[in-house]
Design brief:
Layout: H1 2-36, H2 40-44, H3 58-65, H4 67-95, H5 106-118, H6 123-132, H7 150-161, H8 165-173, H9 178-186, H10 191-207, H11 210-215, H12 224-233, H13 240-243, H14 253-268, H15 271-287
Helix pairs in contact: 1-14, 3-14, 4-7, 4-10, 7-10, 7-15, 10-15, 12-14
Length: 289
């Protein structure tokens, strides 16, 4: 009976902590949403907290009808999809061979790959390399330099280790080669880890702006986060309207909040569809191997 009561108290404590965590994550979003739907006068008077004051959709209308913003949003979605697919392909073809014990130089390759997690050349050598490769100010520069994450590769490799070797040995007896084994056995059994890494890569690409800030000068190829970064940095300047190509004169705090919402909500809508795979993938990928 005592253990039962202690268990219930523990459950209530965990539920309360989860509730506090939800509030910490949710309240800032509610505040930004309320500010985006309020009038500029209400914002100036600091009357807006969690509920809109003087319901106003002008900021959303401005954002939705502005070609610069809508193209940046579409371009970021294209970048996210292409970057996620390329990253998953490279992660898979990097992790899969390392599961073979008879691979020559397997320990060396593992050590070399992990070494890159702790040591990197830095931004300036990266810039010079991309310049020599003629990738600066071109769309591939937003995809190729960071298309493979060693951490994500280790998660996928650990997941592959958890797949019984008997399945691979049976396929090899039937005459299947490594590529066929990967496509017909490993990938169908790796739905959860693929969904998890897809979410990791997609969120990373959607939220990324530093690579575009350093390697891209063409405004038509600015992702949405870099556009938002410029808006937030220049929100008090009248000239930001012409600098960013907006058709509306000036930017208010209401417009800033609306822009933040539009840059955040699309990627948040992806998570519920991948939640069950995300939990399974992270748990299995972290435990096995």
């Amino acid at each position: 009976m005592i253990n039962s009561n202690s268990s219930k108290i523990g459950d209530w404590i965990v539920a309360f902590l989860c509730f506090l965590l939800i509030l910490v994550c949710l309240l800032p979003m509610l505040n930004v949403l309320a500010r985006s739907l309020s009038t500029p006068e209400a914002l100036i008077r600091n009357e807006v907290l969690l509920w809109p004051v003087g319901l106003n959709f002008e900021a959303y209308q401005t954002v939705l009808t502005d070609s610069v913003y809508t193209w940046s949003l579409v371009w970021t979605a294209i970048l996210t999809i292409i970057g996620t697919v390329v990253s998953l392909i490279l992660t898979t073809i990097c992790a899969y061979p390392l599961t073979y014990d008879h691979l020559k130089g397997r320990k060396f390759f593992n050590t070399l790959i992990i070494f890159t997690m702790y040591f990197s050349a830095g931004t300036i050598p990266m810039y010079l390399l991309l310049k020599d490769l003629s990738l600066l100010n071109k769309p591939p520069v937003l995809i190729l330099p960071y298309c493979l994450s060693v951490f994500n590769m280790i998660i996928m490799r650990s997941f592959f280790y958890g797949i019984p070797e008997s399945l691979r040995e049976s396929a090899e007896i039937d005459g299947a080669g490594p590529i066929r084994i990967l496509i017909n056995i490993y990938l169908p059994l790796s739905t959860s880890v693929i969904a998890t890494l897809s979410l990791f890569y997609a969120v990373g690409r959607w939220n990324g702006f530093s690579d575009a800030l350093m390697f891209m000068n063409k405004r038509e190829y600015y992702p949405i986060q870099l556009l938002l970064y410029n808006i937030l940095n220049n929100i008090n300047q009248i000239e930001v309207a012409t600098q960013e190509g907006f058709t509306s004169p000036g930017l208010s705090a209401t417009l800033k909040s609306a822009t933040v919402m539009f840059a955040t909500v699309p990627i948040l809508m992806v998570y519920p569809w991948l939640q069950k795979y995300f939990i399974t993938g992270v748990t299995i990928g972290a435990v096995k191997g």
